[in-house]
Amino acid sequence: MAYDDQNIFARILRGELPAIKVYEDDKVLAFMDIMPQAEGHTLIIPKTPAITLLDLPGEDAAYTIQIVQKIAKAIEKGLGAKGIVLMQLSGASAGQTVPHVHFHLIPSSVHELGKHAATMGDTDKIKAQAEKIKSAL
Ligand code: AMP
């Protein structure tokens, strides 16, 4: 399958759609999930156009996971998270809904996750969580 450069995350990367950002550098963007499965649900995406983890060049995967760890530490410190679920869905069969590779960090327990991509969160609350994560980076 060819990469669709009109997917939501590609449009966020180009600044065509808004995002509540917590971290950005030349290779990676981290921003809040607007339909969080728990408070503080954050997404980390490499800027490389790749659909799934399987399509992502190894060096981009290696760099992105370093940023995933950096954001996880900020979630722990900034939000006082006791546990964090790292989730990565590759392929529609796995439940992937946005065809640009991304990692979910969800401060929760695997036993308590809300439904996936189901309910819009409260924007003001999400923005406040983002500020706490940013201040802990
Ligand atoms: P996946 O199903 O693994 O592809 O995850 C896509 C995630 O993106 C879901 O958790 C959605 O809630 C989230 N999402 C969809 N649209 C947006 C958006 N515009 N900004 C932030 N998160 C989004």
Detailed description of the structure:
With 137 residues, this protein is an alpha+beta fold. The chain has one domain: HIT-like (HIT family, subunit A, 2-Layer Sandwich), CATH 3.30.428.10. The chain has a five-stranded antiparallel sheet with strand order 1-2-3-5-4. Strand 1 and strand 2 form a beta hairpin. The mean pLDDT is 97. Bound molecules: adenosine monophosphate (AMP). Adenosine monophosphate (AMP) binds next to loops. It comes from Acinetobacter stercoris. It is an enzyme of class 3 (hydrolase). Its EC number is 3.-.-.-. This is HIT-like protein.
Class from helix and strand fractions: alpha+beta
Task: Tell me roughly what share of residues is in helical segments.
Answer: 25-40%
Q: What is the highest CATH level, the class?
A: Alpha Beta
* Helix and strand sequence: HEEEHEEH
Quick one: how many beta strands? 5
User: What is the CATH architecture term?
Assistant: 2-Layer Sandwich
Distance between the termini: 36 Å
Shape label = globular
Query: Order of strands across the biggest sheet?
Result: 1-2-3-5-4
